[in-house]
Amino acid sequence: MEHDGTHIPDHRVIKVTRQDSPVADLADMETWEARERYPELRVRGPLFAVGQRRDDGRWQIMIMEEGNPQEARDALNAHFRQRAQDTRDELDRAAYLAAAERLDWEPLDELTVLGRDHRVIRGDLFLRFGPEGPEPPRPADPDPDPVAVAGRRTVRHAAEGFVIDPAAATGLAEGIVKTELLTYAYSSLVVPADVYADSVRARETHPGVVLLPAGFTVAERKPEGEWGSICGSCATPREARELLSAYLREFAPRLLRLDEEDWAEYARAADHLDGTRANEVAVAGRRFRVVRVQGLVRVGPDGPELPRASDWVPHPPPALHEKQLQEEERREREAAGAAGPLEADGEPALVADGGPSAVGVSAEPPLTADEPPVVAAESPAVAADSPVVAAAEPVTVAGDEPPVAGVDAE
Question: Where are the domains of the chain?
Answer without folding.
Answer: 132-155+214-294
